[in-house]
Amino acid sequence: MPIAVRPPWRTVVISPHFDDAALSLAGLLPTLPGPLAVVTVHGGSPAPGLPVSGWDALCGFSSPVEAYRARRAEDARSCELLGAEQVLVDHPDGPYVGEGDEPAGLDPLLRSLAPGTRVLVPLATNQPDHEAVRLRTQRALAAAGAPAPWVYADLPYTGHLPEWGTPGAGEALAASEDWGPAYQELNRTHRLTVRHELVLSDEQWAAKREAVLCHASQLAALAPVHGAVLSRTGPLHAELIWSPEPRDHG
Asked: Which secondary structure element, helix H or strand E, spans residue 77, and what is its range?
């Protein structure tokens, strides 16, 4: 759908991959101002004839195009449950692009946003591809004179912090060698203020689980590293959004 005919979104979630928004924010999204869009950066179809990536093979797919079509359909169902418009940047997933190939389609989309649109980007806990998406979004918004994006804890990664879901999560991230480096790096240059935090109720968890299960093809591949990913008290049970304000080092 051409950007010019889209509704004026009030909240835009930048999701590196098809499942990141549901995993990280399915509980908080219904509480944020709408209309709402989930923008998947790696949302383009791979070129035909490429070999299937290790990740997609682990998820049970025989070809990159099969994986893309299935994941795009999964995301459409998840976005519908979350009350969000599905928006795709025409940029294939990392294994299917050349080195240094950037998601240039994200920049004009960000420049098209109405003033006052709240943009959310991932913290990028132990995920270099998430960090690349956050940095590109920050640069594009700054160049457009738009407010800096807010930052969400990307799950399940940040959620493996032992103190996750407690009032001391921020302090724990500031001290954690395993799960805190992205938080610590951002915290060195910005004051991070909690804007939204949620420990999901049983009702909220049930709704989030339904949205996450839409991305069923990814769950088997997540299990080896995030085995408790769907546990009621696991890494998805709490969500967090910060606003970063530049520190004055003068």
From this structure: helix 64-82
200 CB burial (10 A radius; 0-12, 13-18, 19+)? buried
pLDDT digits (tens, 9 = 90+) for 164-218: 999 999 999 999 999 999 999 999 999 999 999 999 999 999 999 999 999 999 9
Per-residue pLDDT tens digits for 23-40: 999 999 999 999 999 999
- Distance of CA 15 to CAs 60, 194, 226, 231, Å? 23, 20, 19, 23
Alpha-carbon radius of gyration of the chain: 17
Query: 198 with 33: CB under 8 angstroms?
Result: no
User: Is the separation of the CB atoms in 152 and 130 below 8 Å?
Assistant: no
